[in-house]
Design a protein that fits this description.
homodimer
Amino acid sequence: MDAVEESLRRALSQKQSAVETQGNTVRSLKAAAVTTSVSKEKIDAAIEDLNKLKLEMASVEKQLQAHIGGAGRDGSISKEAFRQAVVNTLERRLFYIPSFKIYRGVAGLYDYGPPGCSVKSNVLSFWRQHFVLEENMLEVDCPCVTPEVVLKASGHVDKFTDLMVKDEKTGTCYRADHLLKDYCSEKLQKDLTMPPEKVTELKHVLATLDDLSSEELGAKIKEYGITAPDTKNSLSDPYPFNLMFQTSIGPSGLLPGYMRPETAQGIFVNFKDLYYFNGNKLPFAAAQIGQAFRNEISPRQGLLRVREFTLAEIEHFVDPEDKSHPKYSEVANLEFLMFPREEQMSGQSAKIIRLGDAVSKGIVNNETLGYFIGRVYLFLTRLGIDKDRLRFRQHLANEMAHYACDCWDAEIECSYGWIECVGIADRSAYDLLAHTEKSGVPLVASEKFAEPKEVEKLVIAPVKKDLGLAFKANQKKVIESLEAMSEKEALDMKAALDSKGEVEFYVCTLEKNVTITKNMVTINKERKKEHQRVFTPSVIEPSFGIGRIIYCLFEHSFYMRPSKAGDEQLNVFRFPPVVAPIKCTVFPLVQNQQYEAVAKSISKSLTAAGISHKIDVTGTSIGKRYARTDELGVPFAITVDSESSVTIRERDSKDQVRVSVEEAASVVKGVSEGHTTWADVWSTFPHHSSASQDD
Amino acid sequence: MDAVEESLRRALSQKQSAVETQGNTVRSLKAAAVTTSVSKEKIDAAIEDLNKLKLEMASVEKQLQAHIGGAGRDGSISKEAFRQAVVNTLERRLFYIPSFKIYRGVAGLYDYGPPGCSVKSNVLSFWRQHFVLEENMLEVDCPCVTPEVVLKASGHVDKFTDLMVKDEKTGTCYRADHLLKDYCSEKLQKDLTMPPEKVTELKHVLATLDDLSSEELGAKIKEYGITAPDTKNSLSDPYPFNLMFQTSIGPSGLLPGYMRPETAQGIFVNFKDLYYFNGNKLPFAAAQIGQAFRNEISPRQGLLRVREFTLAEIEHFVDPEDKSHPKYSEVANLEFLMFPREEQMSGQSAKIIRLGDAVSKGIVNNETLGYFIGRVYLFLTRLGIDKDRLRFRQHLANEMAHYACDCWDAEIECSYGWIECVGIADRSAYDLLAHTEKSGVPLVASEKFAEPKEVEKLVIAPVKKDLGLAFKANQKKVIESLEAMSEKEALDMKAALDSKGEVEFYVCTLEKNVTITKNMVTINKERKKEHQRVFTPSVIEPSFGIGRIIYCLFEHSFYMRPSKAGDEQLNVFRFPPVVAPIKCTVFPLVQNQQYEAVAKSISKSLTAAGISHKIDVTGTSIGKRYARTDELGVPFAITVDSESSVTIRERDSKDQVRVSVEEAASVVKGVSEGHTTWADVWSTFPHHSSASQDD
């Protein structure tokens, strides 16, 4: 609980007891007045005091509500109202559509309608340009249908679960942690008179939600008396539900499969071929864009938690002994909001740090991880994500998979809070080792030495003849145990055999001690020449939730401004040209054949230049036509008001320049593709001001 | 069976009986020589004749084999050998990889490796440019997971099946029609002495394979004694297997779902919103690119029959009373191979027809269908599909869905034969009607009349009071039946009531006749003014199997040419720049710092221009480096052999020009993006000939 909240809560509870005390005073004065001579003035004065105190209490309550409820402190609309305005616009203009709407939809499934689909395809193109092309990554495209063996090896079959509770009467399923979270959040928001200890307790539960075991979650649900939200029936104990969509491959029913929960596994199983394709050289990165599936227990938060989504994942394979990056210096000077583990633990907030400092101080584990954090920052901000609402949060030790050596999430703040949109993890050798073990195919890299290196190796050589004589049928198990000794165990045995000639040795497969004598085994350190080092590469994985990024982009791009007449609020998406669903609209100012012909010829040039655009020849007022396209985030509008020249309007400034018909398409192309800026255009061409045209 | 084959088969059987006869002659002469005086000369002469006949027979057999076995008639390598060469190159250079290879793979699942993924992404970009952008289509993006109700309405749950037989001992599954097809094809190829009637029968089976019912298929399998190919065990009767991957949505297990078998349904269920988005105007087209899934019984034919694939589908919605197309004239003069129904039925082959003639003669049902056939032709040939191995084949009446009014497949010839790669169907109102009925949401369009139209409508008005008195509890069922009468039934009833005053009427929900009297119902034709026409649009659907197109493109682009030394065959893919996986390679001629610096600066300019490329600074001979990139289909190579100018080499001609370092990137950009051609470049810049460089 922050300092402001704490002082407000304290003030509120003081005001409440003051109101209570004064209320009692008034009541006793009134009672006394019946029998004794209490003056009316005295009573009236006490009532006035009571009313004053009530007003003060209401004011503090309002402040506290505003502080924790997310309404803009500057008097702007609340988060919920803002979200509703964005979502209404998105749905009305078909940026997205609940899937299968005519059949009442399916929770957690959404379609992208035409403008949304276009934004998505632009985001993916820019991703390909920014990562795959600029970094020379090896892009692959693997199927969604995945046989069980692959996801058994990756751990998903056993561990990719959420804890679920069931309504004991209706059988409706809920995510256990969500119910607990809702309970705590609601209590904190609505019960403003809760004692501070209780506030601290509930906040602690919220902070440690991800750490709770099935038993702990169940105990909390019981303790707080949480029931099924729809029916108020009691709930079952929590139990794990696997989030993968299961299916069966082929007609026999004997080959179970799943819809992949991430695209990464398709890359890992191809490591050997990709390493060969890259000339057997490290480091290199492979990338994949594709659908992934998670059968969420009860999806909510609109586009943020869905059952099918597009992931874009990069697996950068690197020598674990050298995690430097050749292009690291290009990003080292970037400065942005970072939220290291230590700041989170000590209750501080995210702060602006120079990336190079974070790496050199060891806050970020290595250069390659740092390089990708920097590249992700550039990617997101170039898309139009507000840098003040973007932070890189380091995973706490308890959040990280046990094998990960460092992990940072790019979190974007939207009306739902801070949302994880990109995970950037150093997964060490975990995945390649898991598939090596399960498949028997070594997924390794090797480094050839310029000159052979001499290395010392421990060699354990059981003498089979003597062991056979001594242990007969058990010989094999003894030999296996001897060979499996660690270096220390072996050296201890050697010392014992050298000094005493024999030693007791526990063979776990026989579950007993046997006596090993000097003749039965030789243990020696040998020097050998090696020509190469063979090792399992480390993987650094930036993984992008494309749908989440797009939703946050929608919120960050949305604003409202009054119409010219001031009688209504108009919606605008301030998409940068690179993501705008179409780059330009072409309007004849009024309906006539000459202007339409000019509009069509400009449209033809735009098509030839590959610039997406739309002609609008309706007779609607130009102001309305601008408003319609502002709401789709179209950055430029060409208005045909003569046969020789036209105006080009920029969406956010509403500034207009005048250019010749011949130049129009190429000016829009330049500024849409980022070869020039609107400022360049503004300083090159004559300005056009037409009060009658714009709204 | 074609005329050549028939005459060869006849010749072969004549030669066979001649050989037999002559063999008998030789044998009897030899037998006679033991007892009588047959001269050795006579016997030798007979043997010589026999050998001559055997040689002749072998020659005819060889001709027949060549004719039906597909080996090049011009002495080129056989189809199988050609395919093997293509596939070897594709696999070695990671154009594709059998999915989950380290786990021994899964039949029918393939990954695109880096160059394949790049080709695929280029094909999809070009598809978006050629169809979505140029035609202003509404692109959407819907989930793969689909609830059962949608696919029940579309008919997939009930009818999307193949017939399967099982090995009765091992349970292994096979596609029934494939086994029969294999049997017939193999018999026709190997048993050259089959009587002509049998040949005709087997060919007839092959031609009508798709028409056979489950019972007919089963009977043929029994008749021919076909057994399980792997074990020779007997087979079960054929039974239907649904080809959709089934799954379950949400944790309850109560909402069955499927992985979509096509992307089209996602568009149909959104018709209402899309129609609104288009300003309630027809025609318009919606488009979708995405994964589709078919759980094939036993996939084969490599990349052509797979269990997961990318579809690109267009649904063009049009007024059924006006299927003209505004841009039809742009394609009407195209000429290409068409294979109308009539030509197929009468045993002719495909012929070159002007598209406009096919439409005006009614061979192609309407202008819009014709327009899309033309656009598909342009799309495929611009990608690099050989126009001589591309034909548009009309569906035979028995192949078409009952609701379709015309359907044409773009078929591409490859080593597997003629492969359906794009289907272009006029599906009439089938899909929208099916979803209207199932969902209860009317998926209709309307046309506002300029002036209200007067129409005559039949009005059936039951008189509830009198019906209630007569039928009491059954009143409702009688009223419903009266209102449900067809126009003819109602007019017959009116006539009967007018003449006789009463009539017997069968109420199916009561399963009996009732007597209707004149006072119970009024039936009249009324004239009404209507302001609009409401109707279900027709759908014209071009549906592209992207993976199949890409595989055929691989075959059409592949060729081999001797190395300069003539000691080996080098592989080349002649991809046009628009699909080439990377557009350009940059080589320093020899390893030195100056050249490498130039190469890096050119690479930077290429990246800035968005041209995908690769630097190769290995010391390998320039000839080897060219060969390596020719095999990836890279169209241009920049070789740095000085610090001021470089050479640019074109892949297929191996021609080289010399350009300045500064110009290199922009020349490659122009010719890669199609703004100029190699011929322009060749005529603009000085030619470079360097015997030492190229192979």
